[in-house]
Amino acid sequence: MSSQANFRMPRSGLTLEFPQSLGVYDKYEQAQKAVDYLSDNQFPVQNCMIVGTDLKQVERVTGRLTTGRVAVGGLLSGVWMGLFVGLIFSLFDKNGSALAISLATALFGALFGLIWALVGYAATRGQRDFSSVSQIVATRYEVLVEHKVAQQGRDLLAKMPGYTAQQYNL
Fold first, then answer.
1. What is the rounded distance in angstroms from the CA atom of residue 150 to the CA atom of residue 18?
2. In which order are the strands placed within the sheet that holds 19-25?
3. What's the mean pLDDT when you consider all of the chain?
4. Its pTM surpasses 0.70
5. What's the start-to-end Cα distance of the chain, in Å?
6. Which of 34, 99, 100, 112 has its CA 20 to 30 A from that of 93?
7. pLDDT digits (tens, 9 = 90+) for 66-116
8. Which residues contact 154 (CB under 8 A, 6 or more apart)?
9. Residue 14, phi then psi, degrees to nearest 5
10. Which of 135, 137, 140, 152 is nearest to 50 (CA)?
């Protein structure tokens, strides 16, 4: 018999063997409070998971993009990158001209950043003339536990003051 027959794949810390739902909450804080209550009542919380479900992307528009704003952003970004490269080069300089190297690379970085940003902006051809930040968020949070302790968890949560989880047939 080969030695591979006894080999088991290691289990990830983010999985349960046979998960069962204890409840679904509208806010993460509610799911966290339920797990905290279970923990306070000596429930084996190492068998719990909080899973964000029904994901959506939220994008917040932060401002209008103009050629000037794009140019200034690219210029400043290039200056920082150039300064970083100049400081790295300065570490290996034997002539002691660290300031001159840093200034020269900052200027080259500024020029490169300016050109790169303007070319990128021009490539969009006005399709996206705004800046924004985006984030993936869950709309519901489900508390899952191993099947072995699911009923114990349900019984404990039923005693929790203000227990408001929604039960779904998932």
1. 10
2. 19-25, 130-146, 48-64
3. 87
4. no
5. 41
6. 112
7. 999 999 999 999 999 999 999 998 888 888 788 889 999 999 999 999 999
8. 22
9. -105, 25
10. 140
